[in-house]
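Quiz preparation item.
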């Protein structure tokens, strides 16, 4: 009869410890030390799950994540590609070849972008936007 109680107690202690240490601090230890920023909804939801099951550990999870800054997205995470390299994706008629653009982005940034997705919204640029990047309209 003692073994089931120890098993249940062990599971309960493990669950409480994971909630007390907070989700964001466990999953993203590199985010600690931030003061503010955009809140990561995934971490906020995981902390809120702790509120559903255990009020006090859920509040502690939120408090730890806000105090350490682990609940915020990393600031300044941007990706940039040299505009000269992007010229290869533009055809003579001024239209962009999505396959060439996708290859350039994957090579330069190391990430895959679904440029063939039908939900992708493409907008036309203006001469002012090109001038902002130091480019001349060539079409």
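Solution:
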């Amino acid at each position: 009869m003692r073994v089931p109680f120890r098993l249940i107690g062990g599971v309960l202690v493990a669950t409480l410890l994971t909630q007390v240490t907070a989700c964001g601090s466990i999953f993203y230890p590199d985010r600690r030390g931030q003061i503010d920023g955009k809140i990561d909804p995934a971490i906020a939801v995981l902390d809120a799950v702790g509120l559903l099951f255990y009020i006090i550990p859920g509040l502690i999870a939120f408090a730890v994540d806000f105090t350490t800054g682990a609940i915020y997205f990393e600031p300044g995470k941007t990706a940039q590609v040299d505009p000269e390299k992007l010229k290869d994706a533009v055809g003579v008629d001024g239209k962009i070849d999505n396959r060439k653009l996708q290859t350039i982005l994957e090579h330069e940034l190391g990430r895959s972008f679904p440029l063939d997705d039908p939900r992708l919204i493409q907008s036309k640029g203006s001469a002012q936007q090109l001038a902002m990047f130091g480019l001349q309209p060539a079409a």
